[in-house]
Sequence to fold (430 residues):
Amino acid sequence: MKRVFVNKVSKYVGEKVILKGWVYNSRRSGKIGFLTFRDGFGLLQCIVVKNDVGDEKFELFKTLTQESSVIITGEVVKNERAPGGFEILVSDVELIHLSKDYPITPKEHGTDFLMNNRHLWLRSKRQHAILRVRHQIVKAIRDFFDSNDFTLVDSPIFTPNAAEGTSTLFGTDYFGKTAYLAQTGQLYGEASAMAFGRHYNFGPCFRAEKSKTRRHLTEFWMVEPEIAYCDIEEDMQWAEDLLVHIVNEVLEHRLEELKVLDRDVDLLKKTKGPLPRISYTDCIEILQKDGFDIEWGDDFGSPEETHIAEKYDRPVIVHRFPSKIKAFYMKRDPEDEKVVLGMDILAPEGYGEIVGGSERETDIDVLIERIEEEGLNQDDYEWFLDLRRFGSVPHSGFGMGLERVVAWICGLSHIRETTPFARTMGRINP
Fold:
């Protein structure tokens, strides 16, 4: 007999197989028992008949509790009424470990309770579906860049300098020097782009923002491509193509998981290029016309982002933001120095910014001036300035927040469900 996984049982109809996993739930009616089995690859109904397994094994089955670990032996049969269309006619049950007083029961639990038991909550059908979708998004991202001749070059987690000021960084003592947990790998990505032409970094980032909104984590993952000889228009196109690719891949490979989440896939299917593009200035005019108390030069908050996004049935690209609200490394628009050649992509349905990027400043004198204006220590950025001293070229890039994309595609109300173990202002355990 061969050990198989739930997602492969359809290949073994009529054969006796071995499954190793856990009890999701169970019930019985007289001399027949019904066990829902899980192994990390899916759920499968197992039929336990007393006459087939014998008195001893049937009595064992009756003792099985939620999340007890078991080995099931039985024949795979087709049953259209069963979840997934297949089930197991059990011939043997082996108990590996009896789970006692499993805390997450079928009843309703509060969010704090579930987050305190996150290490166990991951086993639930809903959380399993979310993380499967997350996996598919990660795969889609890597496949997209790998197939377009980007080179993955990892950036460091410990950094001596900030990309956007130190107020939202976690500082730490680094053998007598001050270091920071990286809020972005972008500066290092620029170095990689000058070496490889097309680069991407994909890893964890840390921001010490004192935010308790449903959109923010203190530890999150971000993918950051950086492209040499690339202007803002090409940068927006790369971001659009990536986003459309991600959605298509999820729709193709994770429809079952989206069904578990009750996600309206028709909304996701509208994510097709070309995505609408609108300038920041035009957004301000719309917001003012619709009654928002906002002036040109103000940054968008969640209400403003949501309102703009509601005008469209798919993600929208907002470009050319005021320079005073954007990072020092963003290039000013030669046709209007008050704005930068930057862009954000806003997701629909109130999910807000999921991508932010820009064309980068290439002039070393301008960069030095901006570093001074930000009150940053130029010595910490000398290596970054070298990129403008030795073969400076037009280049652009963007960052895409993985968890925000997961939240939007899954239709989640809070970003804490998008990652295995969420880190927020109020949570560092488990």
Summary: The chain has a mean pLDDT of 95. The chain has two domains: 2-97, 118-418. Residues 125-147 form the longest helix (23 residues). Residues 274 and 371 are 36 Å apart (CA to CA).
